[in-house]
Amino acid sequence: MNEMSPRRRFADAAREERPDLALLCLLMGMVADDGLDEAGIDEAQIELDRLAGEVPFAPGGPAAWADALARVLGERYGFRGSAADYRRLDSSLLHQVLRRRRGLPILLSLVWMEVARRAGAPVYGVALPGHFVVGFGDPYGDHVLADPFDGGRRLSGQDAALLVSGVTGAPPEPSVLGPADPLDIMLRILNNVRAWAAARPERTDVQLWAVELALLLPSHPARLRYERAQLLVERGDFLTGARELEEYAEVVAVMEPEAAEAVRRQARAARARLN
């Protein structure tokens, strides 16, 4: 049994030369769900292996791989998403997505990627703005895109452009269609959790652990430190929150002195709540 805390293991796994995205998501699940233990992580990994075993061996080119994954995951096992999944925290937790066969586009794409990788497919994640999908083949040559949220439906170039323009109002930049970095994917998953919790003022506990895990990634937005400090104050830890606000003010003071002074005022107000 691994006696390190899930957070420590998460930080270590994020610094591996080749981060294991499935493991990172399952460790996030341990932080989110007290019911997920080491045996549960093993069961999730075994389920990914089992699903991979049902994919035909070397079915052909990129389109054949995409179709094979769609038949197994989308048709046979019913992995897909709906608008209701955006309202559920467990739509962002890999072990729950494997159990429910429902989730957000990025988590369903993760299932597709992990199963396909285990089956030997040339697969990668594609971080379209607002809608994550997967690619099969050579991202800079012969490839196809598929949408796991829609059961693995293959996407034409026009389909992908419409998805992007629906969010940004502009056609996609070529770089958007390239392979997404595993740690960028992990940060995007945590951002989804933060957004879910931010819309629910009673779930600052979820927002806090999501911010704290994001801060354990080797690269993260500095402003997350400010968000964590604000959450600590909101949750009644005035002293720690004030100290972290002051530390953040020092970071931004050189580039944004007025913003730094505003943060210092927030720190003073937090300390005053102790009196």
From TrEMBL:
A UniProt-annotated Pfam family: TPR_9
Domain Protein SirB1 N-terminal, chain residue ranges per copy: 44-191
Protein name: Protein SirB1 N-terminal domain-containing protein
Similarity comment: family membership: Belongs to the UPF0162 family.
InterPro entries per UniProt: SirB1_N (IPR032698)
Lineage: Bacteria, Bacillati, Actinomycetota, Actinomycetes, Kitasatosporales
Residues of the signal peptide: none
Source species: Streptomyces botrytidirepellens
Stored PANTHER family: F-BOX ONLY PROTEIN 21, SI:DKEY-261L7.2
